[in-house]
Amino acid sequence: MLILNQLTGKVVSGRLYVEAICHAHEQVHSGNFYTVSHIFNNVANSNSAELLIQVGLTLTNHTVFDIACGGDAEFHIFEGPTFSSSGTSVSAVQNNRASTNTSGSTLSHTPTISDAGTTLYETFVPGGGIFGAGGSDGGPIRSGTELILATGTAYLLRVTNTSGGTQDISIGLGYYEV
Fold first, then answer.
1. Are 38 and 159 a contacting pair, CB within 8 Å?
2. Residues 6 or more apart from 7 whose CB is under 8 A from it?
3. How many angstroms from the chain centroid is the CA of residue 144?
4. pLDDT tens, position by position, 5-38
5. Can you give the residue ranges of every domain in the chain?
6. pLDDT digit string (tens) for 76-92?
7. Domain 23-177 belongs to what architecture?
């Protein structure tokens, strides 16, 4: 803020500063950031929890994900899956609660998949946690960098329980569309 002497037009005191926020945070303020999450209860060993993302035709989807399982698991992201049913719709929550914008992407859980598509990413998810099964040192994983999903393309997020027992699994996404 600058304070001017109205008689002389000269700066009496002042500070020039720039306020900066990260791009994703700015997308929240702009009403373009959404979250989606689903908990899959009692997933048997060797079975999977799946979330299908169908990106709209006009805006790219910039996403980060959170994955957790009560025991060890594997996480995969596939591009271009073939499915006969998209499953049960999951609502995208607008993070700017004052905005009326809606997501151009469609998300659903438990789709019927005949071909998973091309593997883009795979990782091991250490399960449990201090209070989890077996007292292991596992925990949730979160992507550190966004994945930009192409318009008009479907993506499958699959978490497979490899713990040897029945576990709860959660899949969460934070994304903006531009």
1. no
2. none
3. 11
4. 656 666 666 555 455 778 787 888 788 999 999 9
5. 23-177
6. 999 999 999 999 999 99
7. Sandwich (2.60)
29 phi/psi in degrees, rounded to 5: -60, -35
Amino acid making up residue 102 = T
Distance CA 31, CA 26 (A): 9
What is the 3-state secondary structure of the chain? CEEECCCCCCEEEECCCCCCCCHHHHHHHHCCEEEEEEEEEEECCCCEEEEEEECCCCCCEEEEEEEEECCCEEEEEEECCEEEECCEECCCEECCCCCCCCCCCEEEECCEEEECCEEEEEEEECCECCCCHHHCECCCEECCCCEEECCCCEEEEEEEECCCCCEEEEEEEEEEEC
The residue behind tokens 């091309």 is 118
What's the pTM value of the predicted model, to 2 decimals? Answer: 0.83
